[in-house]
Specification:
There is one protein chain. By secondary structure, the chain is an alpha+beta fold. The chain is built from 4 helices and 15 strands. The protein folds into 2 domains: about 110 residues, Luciferase, Domain 3 (Luciferase, domain 3); about 120 residues, 2-Layer Sandwich (GMP Synthetase, Chain A, domain 3). A 7-stranded antiparallel beta sheet has the order 1-2-3-9-8-5-4, with helices on one face. The radius of gyration is 19 Å and the shape is globular. The model has no long low-confidence stretch (mean pLDDT about 90).
């Protein structure tokens, strides 16, 4: 993680530390020399044998779906592909559904996954940005930011957190203040839930879909005070 770059450089002062961006399906895509002061979304410039194309870019930054063409792309998944988050192919090009843009210096900047994008108050929000702010707090072990249907905003920004064992108390006001320091107002979660039994996928990552289903179940049943295994942060 970039926030550990300075510690790594101090530990290995003569080493060249390199960051890279890629996926299992694409292998290496972009790289850059580690730099703690680099823009937070920047993941580097394409490798010499890699082409990157941003499809259907939207203003103001030109954010769109990232497609890659290179000799390192995988052949295909084993077994039937029924995962709607899986990679998509268009001829020689492939996308793992990440969204991003190229900045003025030519660096690829990653903002999040297409299927996780939240539209709130008429603006696009990528949960990963909010989650990174939340996870920077030592009291928070896991974070999942979701969009819940809302008649006024379109989608309301909601956060589900797992707190560190033995951490100091955390309040809803603490979360709002933490986010307000780094994020625009529309990105700040309006409600926060705590989940002690954190769901994970088979690969050990946060199961955002399971948490979304839990939140949806609560919305459909007003007699339930909170989603299964969740309780509100006060």
């Amino acid at each position: 993680m970039r926030d550990r770059t300075e510690a790594l450089q101090a530990l290995f002062p003569n080493a060249r530390i390199v960051e890279f961006y890629g996926a299992s399906e694409t292998s290496f895509m972009a790289w850059m020399d580690a730099d703690a002061s680099a823009p937070p979304h920047a993941v580097g410039k394409p490798f010499s044998n890699v082409e990157i194309d941003i499809r259907q870019p939207l203003p103001p930054l030109g954010t769109g779906q990232i497609f890659v063409r290179s000799p390192m792309l995988f052949m295909d998944y084993v077994g039937p592909n029924i995962d709607n988050t899986a990679a998509v192919r268009e001829g020689d090009w492939l996308s793992v559904r990440d969204m991003g843009y190229f900045d003025a210096q030519g660096y690829l900047c990653l903002v999040g996954r297409e299927n996780r994008m939240v539209v709130t108050q008429g603006k696009n929000l990528f949960p990963e940005e909010v989650e990174s702010v939340l996870l920077a707090d030592a009291r928070i072990a896991q974070a999942s930011v979701q969009g819940v249907a809302d008649p006024i905003r379109g989608q309301m920004v909601v956060a589900v957190l797992k707190l560190q064992a033995g951490a100091d108390a955390l309040t809803l006001q603490d979360v709002a203040a933490l986010c307000r320091t780094h994020l625009e107002a529309y990105k700040i979660p309006k409600r926060v839930w705590v989940c002690d039994a954190w769901p994970q996928t088979a690969s050990g990552k946060t199961d955002h879909v399971a948490l979304a289903h839990a939140l949806q179940a609560s919305a459909l049943n007003p007699d339930v005070k909170g989603p299964p295994c969740l309780h509100p942060l006060l």
